[in-house]
């Protein structure tokens, strides 16, 4: 008889990708809730269930005052997560227990915030009940649950093909060949099947395109996304039914752009939805309009509404800053309806105002823009869109920033050191935003050179080239390997100069550099 399967049918023989998920940052809840006129809890204790490699949990613990707890049943992932915690000196308590074991712990506090990203759709019903029971017992009244999951109707056409491919990997994928070659075999099989022009793909023409997109993803990602034993996309109303015993109500989408109807729904669709009195049924219907595949949602234990006065006051107290080099900020945004161009007369003055990377409250911005004919409602919508597309972020209070800075410095030092031999983590932690910021391998190494007192881009480039040379690595540009030292150095120098001009000012304001 086989030993009991500790993986519960979840792909465990291949490490999960080193992703950072900004939606898990409790700092983001405030703007989403305020936009809906909801009371937002103060978060002092938080928990992440199924933290993967633990990047998000560690960044959020190091970059804020929040006490973080979490578990991921894969011991090598939990081991790496604990190594990051040791590096930052943050107080995160991260374990390698299965959900049922973690949920029975007696040393856990009650939580203001519980988050799970990309877990729900990929586990058994039994584990789902464990999570619902945990949330019912451990989430405080007024507390928030963030949960992301695969959704119907968006997955309905591809689900049969996914089933066929996982079956191929299981039945025909040779044992001992490892999941990656089994995935490649299953995708080849699916392509050959579609080449015979079956009735299935004629009825579902998007299937060919989905398969094409799959091929471009890393096999590590595909293993966890498609090839688990459990894979259950569900309607949002089914989700509401699951969470009802924990007394949770749907609050809003955690993906800010989902809250901007103008970029997602036609006027006819908006009017149709406005006539539906039941909020949950309205949400289900909306998913049909946008063919929703993946939801990122906030649920709350006891939704309470703010008065218009309180909402306005709290909005005006929110501080934010620009994250991108002003000339590079695109005035285009992509919603379900495709690409929309933002109104220059509203966005240009706002972006010009924040181009100096200083933190400002919305109230201060409203005053500074008063002669530009921009209403507060327009400012709010602009902020939601700019924050949703990652151009601006909410800023923590100064005492919190000062306290977190030592921890983020230690964590970033560790990550930049690690970047010498690996490109798999492309984020650093900011005490200003309380979370992670995208900084790729070369940029991390430029920062390392800067930290060693090298002040000029040419010196940073030299620093990086020495590291690459020692490992026999060369750059690839436009599909061609740069063979000579001169060509490599020229390309790295070019990147370093670009970094100095475009990225460094923001990274300094974010207290990363």
Description of the structure:
This protein is an alpha/beta fold and 513 residues long. 48% of the residues lie in helices and 14% in strands. It contains 21 helices and 16 strands. It has helices spanning 27-35, 55-62, 75-88, 99-103, 125-138, 159-171, 178-195, 199-203, 206-216, 219-226, 236-243, 267-274, 279-290, 308-317, 344-354, 362-368, 376-388, 398-418, 441-451, 457-470, 485-509, and strands spanning 45-49, 67-71, 93-95, 111-116, 139-150, 249-253, 294-300, 319-322, 332-335, 338-341, 360-361, 392-394, 427-430, 435-438, 476-477, 480-481. It has a 7-stranded mixed beta sheet. Strands 11-8-12 form a 3-stranded antiparallel beta sheet. Helix 3 crosses helix 18, helix 6 (159-171) crosses helix 7 and helix 18 (398-418) packs across helix 19. The protein is globular.
